[in-house]
């Protein structure tokens, strides 16, 4: 079914249901109206984001206000008792879990509180289903906590029931990815890859749709780990096989740029942007586009062929993107860091030392809220700032500090979590330092 037809069907069903609700309401049967409204809205609310992310987002945004309204009914113990039964229990819980992909922290916690009430009230008729739902709620709550926690976060996915069916295998993929992401936050990439190793016995025969999505999702995370580790060829081989959505495009464009294929990365991203309607996905693609342009600027600068107009338009693109980011979650803070760091580098390449230092300070502050374990990026920022500080007359005698940071940086293995910050920029930065030490140049690139 075409996406537009699917969306129109949802609209038609919603309006038909609303007509029925209005009839009940005029009949003064408010209790029946609330039960029917909650059941219909929760049935209609999409449950599986990865089947078709764009359609999922559109449908959820359409129905989300209705869902938030009916969730307010669950302050009534009679409503809770009615839905704490099989099969309605799973429908309501899955709708609540799905809704946590949207809204602010308060709305997410409200949805999770409804699931707690339902599961506590449940008669446990099917103990296995109840345990699976409990595990899903625990995992989702841990994900919400992680999103708003500014330090590395692990836990929340320790209690795993005996999963054996295709639907539960999809949940198993979410669990191992959650654990792997916890290891990535700690810069433990080998351990993250180990978490992604699912026993082959869990998926046998012909995988279900959800199992296939789980397999692709795991491959995407594995590809991102290869990228962060600098294993660009392996990452490229894996990512090229996956459906090209915004998440895959971010990593694929990076592994294309690192060996020098910026134009191919830009073409892929521009093409994908034309066919992406979801605003969140569009934002991530635009950020990836800016990063690819940034990398191209650094390549040109290193080769002594810097296009000032292209560099200026890239800076303007970054500034526009930054204005639309609210740094409330760790992902948003990582976007702020990545943009601020790239702006600092572009200002440094242009010779704007004061502006560059200010950008590095902004980047360092954002980095503290990204939920990452201190490591390579922290030292890179300090190294970049110390290079600028060493050029200021009042800091000319402070070379011991600069040299100690330089040695500390040399002791860290490069990481490639942020495009260009583990490859071209350290080389360009070393050129600045060498040029200053040998010739006193402020901008060796020019």
Textual characterization of the structure:
The protein has 446 residues and is mainly α. The protein folds into 3 domains: 1-145; 167-200 and 207-243, Serine Threonine Protein Phosphatase 5, Tetratricopeptide repeat (Alpha Horseshoe), CATH 1.25.40; 254-446. It contains 20 helices and no strands. α8 packs antiparallel against α9. The longest helix is centred in the N-terminal third of the chain and has 24 residues, at 3-26. The radius of gyration is 25 Å and the shape is elongated. The protein starts with a helix and ends in a 7-residue tail after the last helix. The model is unreliable at 395-399 and 438-442 (pLDDT under 50).
Task: Write the topology of this structure.
Layout: H1 3-26, H2 30-44, H3 53-71, H4 77-83, H5 88-99, H6 105-121, H7 127-147, H8 166-185, H9 189-195, H10 209-228, H11 232-239, H12 246-257, H13 262-274, H14 279-302, H15 308-323, H16 330-350, H17 353-367, H18 376-389, H19 399-410, H20 424-439
Helix pairs in contact: 1-2, 1-3, 2-3, 2-5, 5-6, 5-7, 6-7, 7-8, 8-9, 8-10, 10-11, 10-12, 11-12, 12-13, 12-14, 13-14, 14-15, 14-16, 15-16, 16-17, 17-18, 18-19
Residue share in helices? over 70%
User: What structural category characterises the helix and strand content?
Assistant: mainly alpha
Distance between the termini: 56 Å
- Strand coverage percent: under 5%
The total of beta strands comes to 0
> What is the number of independent domains?
3
Mean pLDDT across every amino acid position? 84
Q: Nearest-angstrom radius of gyration?
A: 25 Å
Shape: elongated
Major sheet description = none
User: Which H/E pattern describes the elements?
Assistant: HHHHHHHHHHHHHHHHHHHH
What is the tally of helical segments? 20
Low-confidence stretches: 395-399, 438-442
